[in-house]
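Record 1 of the preview.
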Amino acid sequence: MISRYCYPEMAGLFELPSRYQHWMEVELAVCDALAELDHIPADAAKRIRAAAPEQVGEKFVDRVAEIEAETQHDLIAFLKTLTEPMGDDAKYVHLGVTSYDIEDTGQALVLGKACDLILDDVAKLETALVELARQHKSTLMMGRTHGVHAEPITFATKLAVWIEELRRSRTRLEAARKTVLAGKISGAVGTYANIDPKVEDLVCEKLGLEASVASTQILQRDRHAEYLCALAVLAASLEKFATEIRNLQRTELLEVEESFAKGQRGSSAMPHKRNPITCERISGLARVVRANAIVGLENVLTWHERDLANSAPERVVLADSSILVDYMLRKFTVVVQNLGVYADNMKRNMGATFGVIHSQQVMLKLIDKGMLREDAYKIVQSHAMKAWTERTPFRALLEADPQVSDNLSAAELDACFDPTYHTRHVSRIYERAGI
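->
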């Protein structure tokens, strides 16, 4: 049920009143342009605008549905409803244009507004991530590769990666917004046979759109595919961030945790449960947004100058992906703003592998003392493997080995086991990421 994941500002853009409102804006702009070019009487254009509803409401929508039940054509039903109060002036409405001059141009207005809402969501999430990162510039935690302890990082460096990834999505969305903000008023097969090309220029200028350089009966669907792909990449990034939180919230780690509200319950059977339900939901919904991008790519293909294969699916995927990404961004922003960060657990987990995470520093120090890299690697690896399998402190094994103790002093080993060594350059990352 997509309605479960709706915020009204975004959902409203894709509901019938909004759809008809934007179609009406295009139809009226066409009449104004025709009048400006002396193709229809100026007074008629003024009367048409005056007779049109200021805001499409329930009564208008119901009347369209009544007529569409007979005509089986939504744009014709819309036109009949719009022009019913216009008398003889109705003959000037939709003059020389085709359905998708109106529908595609109106849809461009909707998608532009949807982009604006999503870009605003992205900005709010970025602000939340930057604020959290600034709080944890010195919070050490375990860096993991292949799910296994690697070397220490800070929590802020992890967040810096997310912030930059989110900014790249913002750039993609801004480009997609420009791509979808295109209009066409070029007639049945895009040749302007029955409409002055200057009408298209005037309409698009009035509506804040770019006139398509060349079109068929429709705007080409690579535009919409780009939008859906930009949303899919953003959703994939959100899933990545959410999955990281889910992993770090595992009981064995518990380094971060979704907030758990008073009165909230995690399980009908187990009263102790505190589950990362929002992050799990985001991970699941990302699959839908990615799948919708595939539909957008399939819709790029059209037969000759027009067929209807794209029409039905895009009425689903454009709305659903916009609504879902808006929802996911808002929900994840709340997760970030209320995230529990457990620095003590991060510190505890860093010690869970008996110090072997400092193996590279020991190896490099032995090489610095003149040992061959292969020899240094074998020595350090043998002690690291023993420390791990026998649950023995790595440093004690090193100190007991003359090949190590004869080359490295206690102070030098101290330096090798200093976790802040790994973060001595992170300020450069913070500076570049603006945190």
